[in-house]
UniProtKB/TrEMBL annotation:
Belongs to the glycosyltransferase group 1 family. Glycosyltransferase 33 subfamily. It catalyses: an N,N'-diacetylchitobiosyl-diphospho-di-trans,poly-cis-dolichol + GDP-alpha-D-mannose = a beta-D-Man-(1->4)-beta-D-GlcNAc-(1->4)-alpha-D-GlcNAc-diphospho-di-trans,poly-cis-dolichol + GDP + H(+). Pathway: Protein modification; protein glycosylation. Its EC number is 2.4.1.142. GO terms for cellular component: endoplasmic reticulum membrane. One of its GO terms (molecular function) is chitobiosyldiphosphodolichol beta-mannosyltransferase activity. Its main location: endoplasmic reticulum. Keywords: Endoplasmic reticulum, Glycosyltransferase, Membrane, Phosphoprotein, Signal-anchor, Transferase, Transmembrane, Transmembrane helix. Mannosyltransferase that operates in the biosynthetic pathway of dolichol-linked oligosaccharides, the glycan precursors employed in protein asparagine (N)-glycosylation. The assembly of dolichol-linked oligosaccharides begins on the cytosolic side of the endoplasmic reticulum membrane and finishes in its lumen. The sequential addition of sugars to dolichol pyrophosphate produces dolichol-linked oligosaccharides containing fourteen sugars, including two GlcNAcs, nine mannoses and three glucoses. It comes from the Eukaryota. Gene3D superfamilies: Glycogen Phosphorylase B. This is Chitobiosyldiphosphodolichol beta-mannosyltransferase. It is found in: Endoplasmic reticulum membrane.
Length: 468
């Protein structure tokens, strides 16, 4: 008898909790006319470091939709997003990990908090025709967004950037109970979306064969602001960065007070003409989230080899290596960098403003990518951005990288630090060499048709939305 009463009480409490959701969902279903041109974009991560979802929001806004972009606001998004009247950024509160109890309990509390909080935010948002969700992280986002789409009559669009469980596996191991639970969860709820997008053909095939999820490949494309940087803008950027980062500063001040000089360029104040310095260092750029899927010890070992080659008399320039980004392993690698005693290589790790990052890529001589996909099925967007700036790339090889980097045509792929060091030696030999391999790669990129994000989105995503 007592057990029956407890069960009845539990059912009543559940109904009391669900009733407001059902009533609110019914009201939002009745507002379908208002919802037709509104989309909610959900990022359970830092909006400023989620360029693909920012691009989705901008493209939706350009095609007449109003957009509510929900996410964490730890870094500044691009100005174009902030200035668009059709886009409202809704800041989500982020629960920091608890400092007490077992790790699995800490993680469970965080997931429950995020689930309830996201449900509340979505249910009280303006009625929407579509909910765009970035995955990963999909726990608890996929289940919550699916529930809201059922209650409110919205269409759920999941954009698969990778698999969340494979990223967790880098930290905990592939057979950890949390990883296995996350894999089961992703497979179950991943099938419930009305529309699935993914970033490579390899991922599309894997989703179909192993997950029974039908997806459409929407390759990452560079936004319009990723392009080669004019020389005068390069100089302005170098002078700005030189105020906080010594590798951008000149080693010798000009005798003429009318000359303004950086480590790479100088400007004559009388004529306004900017020129590249003779004997300037080469500028190498890499960007990272400082996570387990990027092993920067490979780059550091290659730079050590480059240093040895320079000291032994090879015709190589000094090198400035700029590694941009934020992430959990930055402090670890910063200590490794500080322990090196380079003479001809300088390394700095700035966090750039959103508007300065494409300018830096458009000013560099070579990009290096150390992203090695946890699943082997996603592609590094940083390389897409580099190609948009006609910047040749050396990238660590993995399963589907050939869908982006064509070895010997728009860049080079490598397996280890020895191979990367040999590539740096070959590309920077007699730098700057107008007929060298580095310049050939740049000319190939300049001559190739560069499909931009907006055009690609209009061709692929917009028709899909019209059909759902």
């Amino acid at each position: 008898m007592a057990a029956s009463c407890v069960a009845l009480l539990a059912v009543c409490l559940l109904l009391l909790l669900l009733l407001p959701l059902l009533l609110l969902g019914a009201w939002k279903r009745g507002q379908r006319g208002r919802a037709a041109r509104h989309v909610v974009v959900v990022v359970l991560g830092d909006v400023g470091r989620s360029p693909r979802m920012q691009y989705h929001a901008l493209s939706l806004a350009r095609h007449g939709f109003s957009v509510s972009l929900l996410g964490f606001c730890n870094s500044k998004p691009h100005n174009e997003l902030l200035q668009n009247d059709r886009i409202q950024i809704v800041r989500l509160a982020e629960l920091q990990c608890l400092a007490v109890g077992p790790r699995i309990l800490q993680y469970g509390v965080k997931v429950v908090f995020q689930a309830v909080y996201l449900l509340w935010k979505l249910m009280w948002s303006k009625p929407a025709a579509y909910i765009f969700l970035q995955n990963p992280p999909g726990l608890p986002g996929i289940a919550v967004c699916w529930l809201v789409s059922c209650l409110c009559g919205s269409r759920l669009v999941t954009d698969w950037h990778n698999y969340g469980y494979s990223i967790m596996g880098l930290v905990h191991g592939p057979q950890h109970p949390l990883v296995l639970l996350a894999k089961w969860y992703e497979k179950l709820f991943g099938r419930l979306s009305h529309l699935n997008l993914c970033v490579t053909n390899a991922m599309r095939e894997d989703l179909a064969e192993n997950w029974h999820v039908r997806a459409v490949t929407v390759y990452d494309r560079p936004a319009s602001f990723f392009k080669e940087t004019p020389l005068d803008v390069q100089h302005t950027l170098f002078m700005k960065l030189g105020r906080t980062h010594s590798p951008f500063r000149t080693c010798s001040e000009p005798l003429d007070p009318a000359i303004e000089r950086s480590a790479f360029t100088e400007r004559d104040a009388r004529s306004g003409v900017v020129t590249r310095l003779f004997g300037r260092p080469a500028l190498l750029v890499s960007s990272t989230s400082w996570t387990e899927d990027e092993d920067f010890s490979i780059l550091l070992a290659a730079l050590e080899k480059f240093e040895q080659l320079t000291l032994s008399g090879d015709s190589l320039p000094s090198l400035v290596c700029v590694i941009t980004g934020k992430g959990p392993l930055k402090e670890h690698y910063s200590r490794l960098i500080d322990s090196k005693c380079f003479q001809h290589v300088q390394v700095c790790t700035p966090w750039l403003e959103a508007e300065d990052y494409p300018l830096l890529l458009g000013s560099a001589d070579l990009g290096v990518c150390l992203h090695k996909s946890s699943s082997g099925l996603d592609l590094p967007m940083k390389v897409v951005d580099m190609f948009g700036c006609c910047l040749p790339v050396c990238a660590v090889n993995f399963k589907c990288l050939h869908e982006l980097v064509r070895h010997g045509e728009n860049g080079l792929v490598f397996q280890d630090s020895e191979e990367l060091a040999a590539q740096l030696q070959m590309l920077f030999s007699k730098f700057p060499d107008p007929v060298g391999k580095l310049n050939q790669f740049r000319e190939n990129l300049q001559g190739a048709e560069q499909l931009r994000w907006d055009e690609s989105w209009q061709r692929t995503v917009l028709p899909l939305l019209m059909d759902t």
